[in-house]
Design goal:
Layout lengths: L7 E7 L6 H14 L4 E6 L6 H5 L7 H6 L10 E4 L2 E4 L13 H15 L4 E6 L5 H9 L2 E6 L3 H15 L7 E8 L2 H19 L4 E7 L2 H8 L4 H4 L4 H18 L8 H10 L2
Parallel strand pairs: 1-5, 1-6, 2-4, 2-5, 6-7, 7-8
Antiparallel strand pairs: 3-4
Length: 273
């Protein structure tokens, strides 16, 4: 299968923790699945991975189990058909990825080669902030969604995240999403402020994905371990997420829905070939 037929890879990132990034990753994935897309959600929030909790699911194996255990089949680490999507838990060993031996990297690439040709979209829930352990992942992505809130520290950290990535790859496409806005105008002003800052200092345009409101249903969904788009389909958060998914797929479907070669790019970043 050619690269043009490979899955689209999207990283969801934030400059700081506590902005709702994992919740957004989970629910965007489910809504993409409801659009008849084959979706894989990959939990790369090292040390804080909680995708399985948000999904109300449990899976015995992580990708680290496959990387370190030769007898395991690739499909074993993928938990399938949870609210219409599949997911992979990362495992704590991923934090040492820069220290992996070549054989370990090849095992990781085996999983990604399998997934990249099985799914339409692969969403990566990344840890907060940018580190040398995660930068190579981000540089290999087709697109990056940056999550911020209206809080000044969150805005500053979101800009720092984009700058960090931009300095390595000035062409990487960014989407910007403002979460937990008390009022829509507050969220729109946050996005405009960041767009103007990036335009001024990095000479780059970033696309607004939209605003997600502060919604009491989010807390209820987390407590019940039920994704908000499943448990509260009429909530303000769910309706806003629907709009975002349509923007993502609509913009993409107008050109080429498929990806540009995540595995090939990632391999080159690590091995230079």
């Amino acid at each position: 299968m050619s690269d043009s037929e490979a899955a689209k890879t999207i990283a969801i990132v934030s400059g700081k923790g506590g902005v709702g990034k994992s919740n957004i990753s989970t629910n965007l994935s489910i809504l993409l699945g409801k659009e008849n897309k084959k979706v894989l959600l990959f939990d790369l929030d090292i040390g804080m991975g909680n995708i399985h909790i948000l999904l109300g699911s449990h899976h015995s194996y992580s990708i680290m189990d496959y990387i370190e255990e030769k007898e395991l089949d690739i499909a074993t680490v993928i938990c399938e058909n949870v609210h219409g999507i599949s997911y992979i838990s990362g495992g704590n060993g991923l934090k040492n990825i820069v220290e992996w031996k070549e054989k370990q990297m090849e095992r990781f690439f085996e999983v990604m080669e399998y997934a990249i040709h099985k799914y339409d979209y692969i969403l990566f829930d990344m840890g907060a902030g940018a580190t040398k352990e995660t930068l190579e992942f981000l540089l290999a992505m087709d697109e990056i969604i940056v999550v911020t809130t209206p809080e000044p520290t969150s805005i500053t950290d979101a800009y720092s995240m984009m700058k960090y990535i931009y300095l390595r790859d000035g062409e990487k496409p960014f989407y910007l999403l403002c979460n937990r806005a008390e009022f829509k105008n507050e969220g729109l002003q946050t996005i405009t402020r960041l767009q103007e800052t990036v335009r001024k200092f990095l000479h780059k345009e970033i696309v607004s994905l939209g605003v997600l409101p502060e919604d009491s249903a989010v807390r209820k969904a987390v407590i019940h371990q039920t994704p908000i788009v499943v448990g509260y389909p009429a909530s303000a958060m769910t309706l806003s997420l629907h709009t975002m998914v349509h923007r993502l797929t609509g913009k993409r479907e107008s050109r080429d829905r498929k990806g540009t070669g995540f595995v090939k790019t990632f391999r080159k970043l690590f091995f230079g070939r």
